[in-house]
Design goal:
Layout (H helix, E strand, L loop, with lengths): L2 H10 L4 E2 L1 H8 L3 H13 L4 E4 L2 E3 L7 H8 L3 E3 L1 H7 L10 E5 L4 E5 L2 E7 L8 E6 L2 E6 L1 H14 L15 H10 L3 H10 L2
Parallel strand pairs: 5-7
Antiparallel strand pairs: 1-3, 2-3, 4-5, 6-7, 8-9
Length: 195
């Protein structure tokens, strides 16, 4: 298969990030042919390998949030990244932070850091789809990102958030998410932050 056909078909389907299984299914080729094809295109610099079994077109690097979701699944953008995105915290965040039901992990991909903090399945909720240049990514609602961060700071014995825009967060919704964690200390911390 030639590069022109490969690139054209993936772009027509708006697939910028793909696995060998995606390529195998789309082009109906064998596993060996898929491995050879991806290796050859990566070696020529036509596609970039993010990690084992995950590739993208080099110019798709601006899809940071979409990449964060796909790099380690299941996950959604949360914590400092989401709070900065919504303008709730004043700091600029350089690391893309997410939560997952899997083990805590950290990846460095092309000078970007993607970090994932583990949460229980019961609290893996409170996120929705957002658009980034035609690709959909999952991000926590402001209140859920706030609760996720408060919880992780609490279990790490870090001091709670002190600088954030209270007016951009709904207190009742925040407390509703906090109750999902079934942790009295967390609820107490959050109530104190909104007094």
């Amino acid at each position: 298969m030639n590069w022109y056909l490969f690139e054209k078909k993936l772009r027509e389907k708006k697939i910028f990030l793909f696995t060998p299984l995606d390529v195998k299914r789309i082009f109906n080729i064998s596993k060996v042919a898929t491995t050879f094809l991806l290796h050859r295109y990566a070696k020529r610099g036509l596609i970039s390998r993010l990690k084992r079994g995950l590739y993208l077109f080099p110019e798709a690097g601006w899809l940071d949030f979409y990449i964060a979701n796909k790099l380690y699944e299941p996950s959604y953008i949360s914590l400092e990244t989401a709070l900065s995105y919504y303008g709730i915290i004043p700091e600029t965040v350089y690391e893309i932070t997410s939560v997952t039901t899997k083990a805590t992990r950290r990846f460095k991909v092309k000078d970007k850091i993607f970090s994932y903090r583990s949460l229980k399945k019961e609290v893996f909720t409170g996120y929705s789809g957002h658009q980034q240049r035609g690709s959909t990514f999952l991000m926590a609602e402001p209140e859920k990102a706030f609760v996720d961060l408060c919880y992780l700071k609490m279990i790490s014995n870090e001091k709670p958030l002190d600088r954030f825009s209270r007016e951009k967060i709904k207190t009742t919704k925040t407390l509703r998410y906090a109750k999902l964690f079934n942790n009295k200390k967390l609820i107490k911390i959050i109530k104190a932050l909104f007094q």
